[in-house]
Design a protein that fits this description.
The chain is of the alpha+beta class. Helices cover 31% and strands 22% of the residues. The N and C termini lie far apart (84 Å). Bound molecules: adenosine-5'-diphosphate and magnesium ion.
């Protein structure tokens, strides 16, 4: 029986239209998801030139009939949904029936496919939506689809593609998101004839180990504890790293109903569960899988989005935090851990959603540095919570108040000439206090220093003037394939700022020199931190990754909290700080300077 049918227009229109194929990675995702939907147990991915010239996916799934092979490329042709309400109970990956239609419109596709019950298979070739060949062929059961010369007929799109390194990195990232939820399916990933990943069928743990458990990624499942929680609303299982095995460079993955998701708010829940257990700067690695009724999440979002909205995010926050704490508690046997989370911990509000008045709107595109013409990055902090940082929290709702920065012009807090001679105090070995234009000014010492260093590093990067200090004993930096790709990308800038790096093998570099400011630190964690920042912040242009390099180095070389400062050191920091074009917040949005106004102080008496 042919199993494909056309969606009625009305249903099609109810489905958010969107551009499905933006880059090779989105094409790969669609193809592999189709193979999984077809029940494949073995999937091979073959890529050339980061997907520009070839993206091939070979599966051993159910295959297609001759008729289906042709229909598959029609818009809204799908075997997976008949009615609009099916959208809400959907559990297969693809459901719009637009992936293959979009792909064949912008590439040259050649596909062979055969079902087990058919003796012969079908070969079909389509160039820019035109069928140029369709014939009977001999081929194994399953589907073998080659997407050649992506965007051959859309030069603008082709121009938008990033370098091969970036596109390959995007492909691998997309691939990780999928293979981590299908551990039973065997996968291989080949790029330009080189096998980058070979993943046999196994358990979730084995899959995680197969992807990340190498000296380069340093994520070994023996360092993990199991999380397992069943509630009526949601079930959560997976693995979280033991606190003492946490690193600066963490692998953090959430999945919901078999799909990868980004969820800054739930990330906060995991971090809260670890509070007090990690040295600052260290991040927990975790792989957490959620199962939830499809009605309780918004499935009908853009296919390329990885953010997912849940019906009751606060309740899940609490369940998640409690499960992680419980897992860690079992492991550390620490009796002081309080499992009664309701009383002891403030649950922050989710970034959006139903909130009692006053309504708070957070504009995710707001960029505090935008209108000021500063050297600071033209970028929005990715973590919603950093948008709140430094804004006064209003007690009654628990929600921070939102100040529209375009309306309230920030009054000048500090004047360079006052800072030269005013009294200075240090509080808690963390803050510098001084009188300002209209109140008592508190300066976060670590962030202030980091902001000063950030400006210096940015200047050195721009002018290629980093000072290098040769290491007595060179160290070896081993890297995963995607970090290797990333490194080749940013290496000219690392050299510009003072790193001396030589490639040793296809997956390692020797570090022979470091920026002179960093000579007292061990170079490998410094470089790992930079790679992590660049990777996580999705820095794709040279300007973006320079900012991340500068920020990472600044964070790592700034004076720490807990350091007692002399008056001279404090004055040096504050007077350099106020000379920066934007001294109140860091490049990533964190607050450096806060003021207690005279009014606020007087009201207390
Ligand atoms: P969707 O996946 O949303 O249904 P696609 O355009 O991705 O839409 O695919 C259209 C149809 O082609 C699918 O519904 C499925 O029936 C068929 N198909 C696509 N890829 C495969 C495959 N690898 N194996 C078997 N059938 C496939
Ligand atoms: Mg599909």
């Amino acid at each position: 029986m042919d199993i494909i049918h056309l969606l009625p227009d009305s249903v099609a229109n109810q489905i958010a239209a969107g551009e499905v194929i933006q880059r090779p990675a989105s094409c790969l995702k669609e193809l592999v998801e189709n193979s999984l939907d077809a029940g494949a147990t073995r999937i091979q991915v073959i890529v050339r030139d980061a997907g520009r010239t070839l993206l091939q996916v070979i599966d051993n799934g159910i295959g297609m009939s001759e008729m289906d092979a042709r229909l598959a490329f029609e818009r809204h042709a799908t075997s997976k949904i008949r009615e609009a309400q099916d959208l809400f109970s959907l559990r297969t990956m693809g459901f719009r029936g637009e992936a293959l239609a979009s792909i064949c419109a912008v590439s040259q596709v050649e596909m062979t496919t055969r079902r087990a019950e058919d003796e012969t298979g079908t070969l079909i070739e389509i160039h820019g939506s035109d069928v140029v060949r369709q014939e009977v062929c001999a081929c194994p059961v399953g589907t073998n689809i080659k997407v050649c010369n992506l965007f051959f007929n859309v030069p603008v799109r082709r121009k938008f593609l990033k370098t091969d390194q970036t596109e390959l990195r995007n492909l691998l990232t997309e691939f990780y998101h999928i293979v981590l939820v299908y551990p039973k399916v065997a996968f291989t990933f080949v790029h330009n004839d080189e096998i980058l990943l070979e993943l046999p069928s196994g358990t979730e743990k084995q899959r995680i180990e197969a992807v990340f458990g190498n000296p380069k990624r340093n994520v070994y499942t023996s360092a993990f504890v199991d999380v397992s929680t069943e509630t009526e609303m949601v079930s959560i299982h997976g693995f979280v790293v033991k606190p003492e095995s946490a690193t600066r460079k963490a692998e953090q993955y959430f999945f919901v109903n078999g799909r990868y998701m980004r969820h800054p708010y739930f990330l906060k829940a995991v971090q809260t569960a670890y509070s007090g257990m990690l040295t600052s700067d260290y991040q927990p690695s975790f792989f957490l899988y959620f199962e939830i009724a499809p009605e309780a999440i918004d499935v009908n979002i853009h296919p390329t989005k990885t953010e997912i909205k849940f019906a009751d995010e606060q309740a899940i926050f609490q369940i998640l935090m409690a499960s992680v704490r419980e897992a860690l508690g079992k492991f550390t046997l620490a009796p002081q851990i309080d499992f009664d989370t309701s009383g002891s911990i403030d649950i922050p509000q989710p970034p959006t959603g139903e909130v009692a008045a006053p309504r708070v709107t957070v504009d995710p595109t707001y960029n505090p540095f935008h209108s000021r013409g500063t050297i600071y990055p033209d970028r929005v902090p990715r973590n919603w919570e950093s948008l709140y940082e430094g804004l006064p929290a209003s007690r009654n709702t628990g929600m921070p108040e939102y100040h529209d920065p375009s309306i309230s012009l920030e009054p000048e807090l500090l004047r360079a000439e006052d800072v030269e001679s005013c009294p200075l105090w240090q509080y808690g070995n963390k803050y510098i206090l001084l009188p300002g234009a209209n109140g008592l000014v508190l300066v976060n010492q670590h962030r202030a220093h980091a902001a000063i260093l950030y400006a210096q590093y940015m200047e050195q990067l721009t002018l290629s003037q980093g000072a290098m200090q040769q290491l007595l004993f060179p160290e070896v930096l081993s890297l995963s394939p995607d970090d290797m790709v990333l490194l080749t990308h940013i290496i000219p800038d690392l050299r510009a700022i003072g790193f001396d790096l030589e490639q040793l093998s296809p997956d390692s570099y020797s570090v022979q020199g470091v920026p002179s400011q960093l000579v007292s630190q061990s170079p490998l964690p410094v470089l790992q931190h930079i790679l992590q920042q660049v990777r996580e912040r999705g820095a794709d242009t040279q300007r973006e990754w320079r900012e991340q390099i500068a920020l990472s180095l600044a964070e790592q070389s700034a004076i720490p909290y807990g350091k007692a400062l002399t008056e001279e050191e404090m004055r040096d920091i504050v007077s350099k700080l106020v000379r920066l074009p934007q001294y109140r917040r860091m490049a990533d949005g964190k607050t450096i300077v806060s003021v207690m106004t005279d009014d606020e102080i007087n009201k207390r008496f």
